[in-house]
Amino acid sequence: MTERSVIFFDIDGTLLNHDKKLPASTKEAISKLKELGHEVAIATGRAPFMFADLREELDIHTYVSYNGQYVVLNGEVLHTNPLNIDALEKLTSTALANEHPVVFMDHEDMKANVPEHSYIKESIETLKIDRFPTHDPHYYNGRDLYQTLLFCPEGEEKQYEQEFQDFDFIRWHPVSVDILPRGGSKAKGIEKIIEKLGFPEDRQFAFGDGLNDLEMLSSVKNSVAMGNAEDIVKAAAKFVTKSVEDDGILHGLQMVGLLER
C-alpha cells in the first residue's frame, strides 16, 4: 500500500491555467491521488466563495484560503486570523484620500467602499468568477474580515507598507494588492492542518507559482514550483515542474513519486 501523503495545491497558475480552466490531466491526477488514499488540499489567496465550484468538481474539502487566514479541515473551520479592524479603518480613510479604492472581504462576500472604479473592474475580471463586489463602505463594522484588496498602481503601496505595520501587502495584479494580517501566510495555515493530520515532513507536498507561495514553498519539505512561475518562486522550491499549460501538475506528481509515469 502507498504511504499516505498530504498535497497542497495553489489555484491560479497551478491548478487552473491562464484562462482559469482546469486541465483534464490535472483533474485526472487529483482523482488518482484521492484513489490512492492521499489527502488533497487547496492553498490559495482566494476567498472561499471564489473557488466553491472547483472544490466541488475536485471533491476537495480541506483548504487554506485568504493566504492562510481562513482554514478549513474536512468541511469544518479549523483556524481564522482576522484583520485588525481599527487599523483597517484608518487605512481605508487614507486610501480614500488618495483615491485608492478598497474591497473588504470575509468568508462569505466582498464589498467595495466606492460604488465603482476601473481598477476594481479590471483586476476582479481577471479571476473569471461569477461574483463582483457591490457597494458597502461600512462592511467592516461588526464582522471579521480576513483580507482586503487595495487598488493602486505598482509602487504606490509603499506608503501604506510604511504607515500600517499591522498588515502585509502582497501584489497580485498590476493595480491591486492583497492586505493581510502581519505575518499571515499560506505556510501558517498549512501548519494548522498538519498539526491536526500529523503527516511527517517527508510526506508533505506543495505546488505553487506565485509570490504568495514563497513561504509555503520554502517551508514544505517537498515543494514544487510550476514552470510558469517567476525565478524567485522557482528558487524557493525543491523541485520545478512543467508549465500549468503543459500538464505541469501531472508531470510534477510523477517527478516526486506520488504518481506513476
Question: What does it look like?
Answer:
By secondary structure, this protein is an alpha/beta fold. It has two domains: 6-80 and 184-255, Rossmann fold; 85-181, Hypothetical Protein, Haloacid Dehalogenase-like Hydrolase, Chain: A, domain 2, CATH 3.30.1240. It contains nine helices and 14 strands. The chain has helices spanning 24-35, 52-58, 85-97, 118-125, 158-163, 186-197, 214-219, 231-236, 248-255; strands at 6-9, 39-43, 63-65, 70-73, 76-80, 102-105, 110-112, 134-135, 147-150, 167-173, 176-181, 204-208, 222-225, 239-240. The strands form two sheets. An eight-stranded mixed beta sheet has the order 5-4-3-2-1-12-13-14. A six-stranded mixed beta sheet has the order 8-7-6-9-11-10. The longest helix has 13 residues, at 85-97. It starts with 5 loop residues before the first strand and ends in a 6-residue tail after the last helix. 44% of the residues are buried. The model has no long low-confidence stretch (mean pLDDT 96).
